[in-house]
Amino acid sequence: MKFQYLVGIASVFFLAGCTTMPRGDNADLIIHNGQVLTINTEMEVIDDGVVVVKDDTIIAVGGHELMQQYQAQKVIDAHDGIIMPGMVNAHNHLPMIAFRGLGEEGISNRLFAYFFPLEAQKLSRDLIYNATKLGAIELAQSGVTTYADMYYHMDEMAKATKEVGLRAVLGETVIKFPVVDAKTPYGGVEYGKKFVEEYKGDALITPAYAPHAIYTVSKEKLQEIHALSEQQDVPVLIHVGEFPNEEKRLEGETQAKTPIEYLSEIGVLDQRLVIAHGIHLTPNDQKLLKEADVGIAYNPMANAKGATGIAPAWEMYRADMRIGLGTDGPMSSNQVDLVKTLSYAANMQRLKYSDRTIMIPEQVIEMATLGGAKALHMEDQIGSLEVGKKADIAIFETQSANMMPNYNPYATLVYQANPSNIDTTIVNGKVIMENRVMQTVKLDDIRDNVDAFEADIAEFAKELAKKAIKSKSLMD
Ligand SMILES: [Zn+2]
């Protein structure tokens, strides 16, 4: 009794002392007991690896011995899972998740006869905010930690994205007709200027401009946006080479034979530009893109579903160009996660080049992580698990039947994994989801809002589809 009493007294003194002494922790978060895919230059894989985080940054990556060197209040046991950099979805229109599953009646002219009228009628600030939250939860649940997006009311998107806790490059759309957040043609330029000023320097949001495409934005406006992006040092996101002969739909004179030559000719092809699709590219286009250090988002699922073609992604990857993976909007591939895209990304290239030796799983995972970071010119911050990088981390569990056996973690991820195998997602050092439980925003918080917009859209969408089917395709 006496001994216990003394120990008790000693503990009280010890604990009292602790309140004024610094804690023994030299880290904020430690992840251990998993296979670490570093995606560093050597593509090092560490069995029984450890990742150590302080604040928003990775401070150590290595083997089990790190457990002796670091202490943190938060320790995550990966239970033999796969610890990897969070994936980067390099092209999306996330709020279109509100329309996912619509316009699936075989409409040829889907963009002009269905997408644009649907958006004109049904988009609102509220819808964009709530749909972004829904989409961002799905991204977090599937291990995407950064996404790039081109849409409207980007301030609403930024708000919802930050609440969920993801990192994003958000480009305000500029287009030649009035849209939901701009009552005059090209009103997105002014909207974008304010958005950029508001979010420049934000820890999670990189503001950007998003001219829709060369056939929906004039030469003068493309040049004006380019000048603004230089002044404000922000990215420009644009769709290019999604359809054949886009240059034939240009107004005015040009010597250019291709959309990329056109962008080069008018002086806007530079290292701030990120192009989505890049399907219809000549060898000269690829050369121009490489010389200008342009980022490219390859969207294999959306391109297959839209029957737009297969981008020469393998050639650009092999040429060490900045190429990452995207899904495009949720009406284009009906997915926002990248897990299902992984096998598409590989298999479409193998079919295109009739070569089963290309795009091996290791290369696909590199494209989904570091490749995406490079496409967005963010590789100094994200895309790999290395000391000094931001702590954007995804943990796949390997206990489910579909994850067994796990001989080669890259092959397991590309050809076996489902989005639901993601167990934990960390962005900027913050745990967004743990053991599949969202830690920031819960799906239940927005369920009523999702039900409400679904009810509001359903009838209008059905009628619109009937009209759209009769319209002739501009791509024919
Ligand atoms: Zn798109």
Automatic annotation (TrEMBL):
Gene3D superfamilies xrefs: Metal-dependent hydrolases (3.20.20.140), Urease, subunit C, domain 1 (2.30.40.10)
UniProt keyword ATP-binding present: no
Alphabetical UniProt keywords: Hydrolase
Residues passing through the membrane, by range: none
Domain of life: Bacteria
CDD domains assigned: ATZ_TRZ_like
Example GO molecular function: hydrolase activity, acting on carbon-nitrogen (but not peptide) bonds
Domain Amidohydrolase-related, residue spans: 82-431
Classification via InterPro entries: Amidohydro-rel, Metal-dep_hydrolase_composite, Metal_Hydrolase, MTA/SAH_deaminase
A Pfam family of this chain: Amidohydro_1
Family: Belongs to the metallo-dependent hydrolases superfamily. ATZ/TRZ family.
Protein name: Cytosine/adenosine deaminase-related metal-dependent hydrolase
Source organism: Marinomonas alcarazii
